[in-house]
TrEMBL record:
Signal peptide: none annotated. This is 8-oxo-dGTP pyrophosphatase MutT (NUDIX family). It comes from Planomicrobium soli. PANTHER family: MITOCHONDRIAL COENZYME A DIPHOSPHATASE NUDT8 (PTHR12992:SF11), NUDIX HYDROLASE (PTHR12992). It comes from the Bacteria.
Length: 204
C-alpha cells in the first residue's frame, strides 16, 4: 500500500470512540418544569413490569432508533412516549455531557423544559408514576458518593504465557462511583443521580 493511499484513508475519517460501534446507545432528557413559581426536576418511577430495573427512579429516555434524526430527537421522542405529552410541550432542550459506561453503553443526556400546563398520560407499561423535586433541593444538598471496585477475572483459557508477568501480572483494577440523593422517601441513584449531579454543577 502506498503512502498516498494511507493518508487518504486517515485524513477522510471523523474520529470517534474506539469500539463505540458495538456500544448500546441511549438518550435521556432531564426534564424541568415550573411549579408554583419554582423550577422542579421531574422523575419517573419505572413500571414493575419492566425487564430491567423495575421500580427504580429515572429520567425519561431509551435506546436510539435508526429512524431518529439525532440523539436529541431520541430523548424527546422517548419523553413524549413515556409521559404521554405533546411534542409542543417540550422546549429549550440543550445537551449535557455524554457518558460512556463500563458496561458497554453510551448515554447522551439533555436538559429541557416541559410546559407547566402539559397534560400527562404516562404509559403504564413503562411508567408506574412520576413526581417532581424542587431544583433548589439539589442545589443545596450534595449527593453521597460510594465507590464500587471491580475485580479482574480473565477467562480460563487466557494466555498468561504471552504477557510479561504471566499469572502474576499486575492488573489495573477499575472503580465506579455511584451517586445517591435521598428526597423524602425517594432514593435517586446510579446513572440518574450522576447526570443530575453533572447538571447541577453546570448551573450552580
Amino acid at each position: 500500500m502506498k503512502s498516498k493511499a494511507i493518508l487518504n484513508k486517515v485524513k477522510m475519517r471523523t474520529p470517534s470512540i474506539l469500539g463505540s460501534e458495538e456500544f448500546a446507545k441511549y438518550a435521556i432528557l432531564l426534564p424541568l418544569i415550573e411549579k408554583e413559581g419554582d423550577i422542579h426536576v421531574l422523575f419517573e418511577v419505572r413500571s414493575q413490569n419492566m425487564r430491567r430495573q423495575p421500580g427504580e427512579i429515572c429520567f425519561p429516555g431509551g435506546r436510539i432508533d435508526p429512524q431518529d434524526k439525532s440523539e436529541q430527537d431520541t430523548a424527546i421522542r422517548e419523553t413524549i412516549e413515556e409521559l404521554g405529552i405533546e411534542k409542543s410541550d417540550i422546549h429549550d432542550v440543550f445537551p449535557l455531557d455524554y457518558i460512556v459506561s463500563p458496561f458497554g453503553m453510551m448515554v447522551y443526556a439533555y436538559a429541557g423544559f416541559i410546559q407547566s400546563g402539559a397534560q400527562f398520560d404516562p404509559n403504564p407499561s413503562e411508567v408506574e408514576s412520576f413526581f417532581t423535586v424542587p431544583l433548589a433541593f439539589f442545589l443545596e444538598i450534595k449527593p453521597k458518593v460510594y465507590r464500587i471496585n471491580f475485580d479482574v477475572q480473565p477467562e480460563e483459557s487466557f494466555p498468561y504465557n504471552l504477557i510479561a508477568g504471566g499469572e502474576n501480572y499486575n492488573w489495573r483494577t477499575r472503580t465506579l462511583d455511584e451517586y445517591f440523593y435521598i428526597y423524602e422517601d425517594k432514593v435517586i441513584w446510579g446513572l440518574t443521580a450522576r447526570i443530575l449531579s453533572h447538571f447541577v454543577e453546570i448551573i450552580r
